[in-house]
Design brief:
The chain is α/β, with parallel strands linked by helices. It is built from 16 helices and 11 strands. A 7-stranded mixed β-sheet has the order 2-8-7-6-5-3-4, sandwiched between helices. A two-stranded parallel ribbon has the order 1-10. The structure holds 4'-deoxy-4'-aminopyridoxal-5'-phosphate (PMP).
C-alpha cells in the first residue's frame, strides 16, 4: 500500500484552475480574463525595458550567489521603505521601521500573519489572534492568515445593492465595531478583486476614526505605481495613516509594478515607536523567517535596487509603469464604449471608475458561466475580469459577450 493512499485531492485554486479550463477550450476566439498579470496590446507577457537594463547591469556586475541575510538585502530594504513611505517619512528618518525583504506580497503576508499569531504569546496577552479583511478580498488572503493560525473575520466593503461601488459607511461601522486588539487588513490601492478604493477624503476620515481604536492596521500594497501610473499617488493612503501616527504593518510586492512576478521580490515593514522596539521586532521577524525559508532570493531584489537607486533608470521605470497603467485605463474606456456600441443601455460607469488591473463587472456566477459556454470568454466566477487581458483586437468581442449575457 502506498504511503499516500488515503490522501484525497485538494480543491484546485480557482484562478489556476481557470487557466487549465481555458487551455483545454478549442475555441479560436477564446479570451482569458482571469490571470492577474499584465499583458501588452498583443496579449503577450511584458518585460519593462528599464527592468531588462537593470538586469543586464546586475549580470554584468558578476555578482556572487552567496546567501542573503535572513532579512534580505539591506540596501534593497532601505530603498523599498523610501519608495512606500516617502524619504521624508518621520518613522524612517527616526530609524524606527522594522523591515525585511520577503518573497513578494504573499511571502510578506505569511510572515506578518505569523507575527500576528505570535504576538499575544510574546507579550503575555490572552488575546486571540484575529484579522478582519474586506468582503470580498483577494482569494488567497484568508488562506494565508488561517494557515498561520489567525482567525479571519470580514468587514463590509462592496455596496450590496450596486455590487460595484464602495459601502463606505458599512465598512467604517464594521471597523469601528471590530474586536479590540485585532488586525485590520486594508488594500493600499487598487483593491483586488473589485478595483474599488476609498476616496482620499474617505481614507482621511477612516484614519482619524481608527485613531480612537486599539486596532492594528495592516496595508497590503501590491500595486504601487501600477494603479494610477503614479507611485506617489498610490502611496497616499498608507502615508496619511503613518502621518496620523498609526503604527502600521505593510507588505509591498514588486510583482505587478516592476513586472517581476516570478522573481518573488517584496518587503514587509512595521512602524515602531522607538529604535529599541524596532530591534526587538526585527529579531522576532528573523525568528519566524529562519525556520521557514532561511533567507530570501537575491536576483530580483538586485534588479529593484538597481532601478530605485539610479535616478535615470528610475525615471525610465516611472514612465514605463505609467504606460502600463495608461493602457489598462484605455482598455476600460474601450470596454465601456464597446458595451454601448453592442447595444447595452446599462450603466457601466464602474468599469472606468474602478482602478488597477481588475474590473468588477457585476456579472453573476450564472452570467459568467454562460459567457464561458457561449463566447469562450473566461473570467472568475465573482465577475472579476483582468483588464490587462483586453487589447484592441479582443475588446469589442468581449464587450459583445458581456452584453449578450447581461441584457
Ligand atoms: N495582495 C494582493 C491584493 C494581490 O492582488 C496580490 C497578487 N495577486 C498579492 C498580494 C500577492 O502577489 P505576489 O505574491 O505575487 O506579490
Amino acid at each position: 500500500l502506498s504511503a499516500w493512499a488515503g490522501v484525497p485531492a485538494a480543491p484546485a485554486d480557482p484562478i489556476v484552475g481557470l487557466n487549465q479550463t481555458f487551455a483545454d477550450d478549442p475555441s479560436t476566439t477564446k479570451v482569458l480574463l482571469g490571470v492577474g498579470a499584465y499583458r501588452d496590446d498583443a496579449g503577450k507577457p511584458y518585460v519593462l525595458p528599464s527592468i531588462r537594463e537593470a538586469e543586464s547591469r546586475v549580470v554584468n556586475g558578476n555578482p556572487n550567489h552567496e546567501y542573503a541575510a535572513i532579512t534580505g538585502d539591506a540596501e534593497f530594504v532601505k530603498l523599498s521603505l523610501e519608495f512606500a513611505y516617502g524619504p521624508d517619512s518621520a518613522p524612517l528618518q527616526e530609524g524606527r521601521v522594522a523591515a525585511a525583504q520577503v518573497l513578494s506580497g504573499t511571502g510578506g503576508l505569511r510572515v506578518c500573519a505569523q507575527l500576528i499569531e505570535r504576538l499575544p504569546r510574546l507579550t503575555g496577552s490572552s488575546q486571540k489572534p484575529v484579522c478582519y479583511m474586506p468582503e470580498p478580498t483577494w482569494g488567497n488572503h484568508a488562506k494565508v492568515f488561517q494557515d498561520a493560525g489567525v482567525e479571519v473575520r470580514r468587514y463590509r466593503y462592496l455596496d450590496s445593492n450596486t455590487k460595484t461601488t464602495l459601502d463606505y459607511e458599512g465598512m467604517k461601522e464594521d471597523l469601528l465595531g471590530a474586536e479590540a486588539g485585532s488586525t485590520i487588513l486594508l488594500h493600499a490601492c487598487a483593491h483586488n478583486p473589485t478595483g474599488v478604493d476609498p476616496s482620499p477624503d474617505q481614507w482621511r476620515d477612516l484614519s482619524a476614526a481608527l485613531k480612537k481604536t486599539d486596532l492594528q492596521l495592516f496595508f497590503d500594497c501590491a500595486y504601487q505605481g501600477f494603479a494610477s501610473g503614479d507611485a506617489e499617488a498610490d502611496a497616499v493612503a498608507l502615508r496619511s495613516f503613518v502621518e496620523d501616527g498609526h503604527q502600521i504593518l505593510l507588505c509591498q510586492s514588486y510583482a505587478k509594478n516592476f513586472g517581476l512576478y516570478g522573481e518573488r521580490v517584496g518587503a514587509l515593514s512595521a512602524v515602531c515607536s522607538s529604535t529599541e522596539e524596532k530591534a526587538a521586532l526585527e529579531s522576532q521577524l528573523k525568528a519566524i523567517i529562519r525556520p521557514m525559508y532561511s533567507s530570501p532570493p537575491i536576483h530580483g531584489a538586485r534588479i529593484v535596487k538597481e532601478v530605485l537607486g539610479d535616478a535615470t533608470l528610475r525615471a525610465q521605470w516611472t514612465g514605463e509603469c505609467k504606460e502600463m497603467a495608461n493602457r489598462i485605463q484605455e482598455m476600460r474606456s474601450l470596454l465601456r464604449e464597446g458595451l454601448a456600441e453592442a447595444g447595452s443601455t446599462k450603466d457601466w460607469s464602474h468599469i472606468t471608475d474602478q482602478i488597477g488591473m481588475f474590473a468588477y463587472t457585476g456579472l453573476s456566477k450564472e452570467q459568467v458561466q454562460k459567457m464561458r459556454d457561449e463566447s469562450a470568454v473566461y473570467c472568475t466566477l465573482d465577475g472579476r475580469i483582468s483588464v490587462a487581458g483586453l487589447n484592441r483586437d479582443n475588446v469589442a468581442y468581449v464587450a459583445a459577450a458581456i452584453h449578450a449575457v447581461s441584457k
